[in-house]
Amino acid sequence: MVIVVVGLRTAGQTLNSLTSSLERLCSKEERTWKDRIFNQIRLDEVNSSQRNHASSWLRKVAASMHFGIDTYALSVDLLDRFLATLKVRPKFLECLAVGCLYIAAKCKEEDDTIPITPEFVIDCNASCSANELLRMERLILEKFNWYADFVTSVDFLQIYFALLLLKSNSQHEGNDNEKILVEKYVDLELKLASCLQHHRLATFKPRILALALISLELEKQQVLEPEINIDWLASITYLQHLAKIESDALLSCRDLIVRLSPSYKVVRLELSDLAFISRAYNSSSSLKPLINLSGRPTYADVVCGRAAPAAQ
């Protein structure tokens, strides 16, 4: 069976390979996750409202440059990580946001689709210069030890949907459910991008945010179209078990999405409805071990963890 979904990179994978990929993704998230606490008081430091404005601006810029949702999600993740690491004055926020998008594009996009630095600044309509962008790019990478390919909620959204497709096709004949899920995936990418613009949702781990959004969408679908044969609660519990997500965290994220997104008029879940409570798991395995590369490693090799940065 071949599975092909727009935006997914899991075509033709089996259940075992997908679950193994999810385990590695969870392990990578556990190793690299950094808690986010956003400034609410200090006037000389970027606050949560300014962070949200920058995230919304990044979404518009990424869309205008035809970058994927995964690029946008990584740029916001880099922005949040940097703000959680250093105090940033508001006047530097635009250059920081452009730098995060520049790095994310180099990690996720094809090389020939990324403008050279001076053109990138112009396309972003940014007030910083090309040299300032390059200095900011280096500062960001140095703070992250020259690694930037972090896990985002888009990564989990992709693999969750691939697993749902595989599970749906194994239980039902025909392509009705598959068509519905494919349509929902495209729609949920846009909704996930909107969620990333809220600093309160950015405090949840990517695996939780992605699953909470999927659960709300499937629940809404079943309420509006009960004839559709998708057992949303069983599907979400299945993914929750695989991703080892605790029920209280999932419910908290769902509630916040509902408050921030009025379109979700669904029945509120109780904790007892989700039976699975996660157990601790071993996160010591490495997702991308370093490998020997002939010649000088490329930018993508360094920031995506495929090669160590050259000694200065």
Q: Can you give a write-up of this model?
A:
The protein is mostly helical and 312 residues long. The protein has helices spanning 15-32, 48-64, 69-85, 93-108, 117-124, 130-143, 153-171, 176-195, 206-224, 232-243, 247-260, 299-303. The radius of gyration is 20 Å and the shape is globular. Pfam families: Cyclin_N. Belongs to the cyclin family. This is Cyclin-like domain-containing protein. Residues 56-142 form the Cyclin-like domain.
Which descriptors apply to this entry?
312 residues, single chain, 12 helices, Cyclin A, domain 1, mainly alpha
Which structural class best describes the helix and strand composition?
A: mainly alpha
How much of the polypeptide forms β-strand, as a percent range?
Answer: under 5%
From the N-terminal CA to the C-terminal CA, the straight-line distance is 49 Å
- Which regions contain 5 or more consecutive residues with pLDDT less than 50? 1-10, 266-294
Tally of discrete structural domains:
2
**Distinct helical segment count:** 12
The pLDDT mean sits at 80
Shape: globular
Order of helices and strands: HHHHHHHHHHHH
What profile does the largest beta sheet have? none
Query: How many extended strands?
Result: 0
